[in-house]
Design brief:
Blueprint: H1 7-16, E1 29-30, H2 33-43, E2 50-54, H3 60-68, E3 71-76, H4 82-88, E4 95-99, H5 107-113, E5 119-124, H6 130-139, E6 144-152, H7 153-160, H8 170-178, E7 179-187, E8 192-193, E9 200-207, H9 218-229, H10 236-241, H11 250-259, H12 273-287
Parallel strand pairs: 2-3, 2-5, 3-4, 5-6
Antiparallel strand pairs: 1-8, 6-9, 7-9
Helix pairs in contact: 6-8, 9-12, 11-12
Length: 288
């Protein structure tokens, strides 16, 4: 394996192809072999696994994954990186590179290619697209064992935090509904080329076989959660009653909260996933 996980090798390959970073893609290449090894270890890749890698860049992580997995499907949005990947991954016959926006890829089709077995996802995601990608993976219903992802540290903290903290929000609840989040490693900005303005964190999200709560209507639950955090300063009564598409009245929200023993002045940031589920189930019954 031609290890690209250092400043010199990464600089050489980028220079060889005269590659120019595109700010719109939030490109930062990992140049620390120790962190690369930690990610692969955390993802628990075995010889029987099919790995979906999102944003392979120049193939640094892809090489590590190809050494451990049965198959790697790498989805890269930047067409300018494809010639580089063809070079750095040329010795691997178990890697398929797809030049596409992951949000436009038919994830179910990828799962079918794997015989319906659960995929393991590994990704280094830029801040601006982290939440849409993670939600798309969970909501796709494709067989998914885990997502091991490098994200901005602030986002990682949001994934695992609970009620009452300023980081707590819709992402926290969505992740905790679908998976068990665990912090794997903190990664300083100095481990990337170019160096970003913030530190990153590696998080492993282990998919639950069954969510920890029973929502009568999953889509409605998440609509309630999103409406509750759209304007954090608003009470739940105001936030939900004024949310377009929910179809609930102020009186219905007040009644549901009263039945739950909660004040009409309560805000969404104080409710656990279990309480949000209870609230959405009660509102759904009232609406019907």
């Amino acid at each position: 394996m031609a290890d690209l996980g250092n400043f010199t090798k990464t600089s050489e390959i980028l220079g060889k192809y005269q590659f120019r970073m595109q700010k719109k893609y939030g490109q930062n290449f990992l140049i620390d072999a120790n962190i690369l090894a930690k990610i692969v270890e955390a993802a628990q890749i075995t010889k029987g696994d099919c790995v979906l890698e999102i944003g392979p860049g120049i193939g640094t992580m892809t090489q590590y994954l190809a050494e451990e997995a049965e198959r790697v499907i790498a989805v890269e949005i930047d067409r300018g990186l494809i010639p580089i990947l063809e070079d750095t991954l040329s010795v691997y016959d178990n890697v398929t590179v797809i030049c596409e926006d992951i949000l436009k890829v038919d994830l179910s089709a990828l799962a079918e290619e794997n015989g319906g077995r659960p995929l393991k996802v590994v990704a280094n995601l830029p801040y601006y697209i982290t939440t849409p990608i993670i939600m798309a993976l969970f909501e796709s219903r494709m067989p998914l064992a885990s997502i091991t992802v490098m994200v901005q540290s602030e986002v990682a903290d949001r994934m695992q935090t609970g009620p009452g903290s300023k980081e707590y929000g819709a992402l926290s609840l969505a992740v905790q509904y679908y998976a068990k989040p665990e912090i794997v490693a903190r990664v300083p900005a100095s481990c990337f080329l170019p160096r970003p303005n913030v530190d990153s964190t590696v998080v492993r999200l282990t998919r639950y076989e069954k969510p920890p709560v029973e929502a009568a209507d999953e889509a409605f639950l998440f609509a309630v959660i999103r409406a509750s955090f759209n304007q954090r300063r608003k009470t739940l009564v105001n936030g939900l009653a004024n949310a377009g598409g929910l179809g609930v009245t102020r009186g219905q929200v007040e009644k549901a909260l009263e039945e739950m023993g909660l004040s009409p002045m309560v805000r969404g940031e104080t409710l656990t996933l279990e309480r949000f589920t209870e609230l959405s189930n009660r509102l759904l019954r009232q609406r019907e």
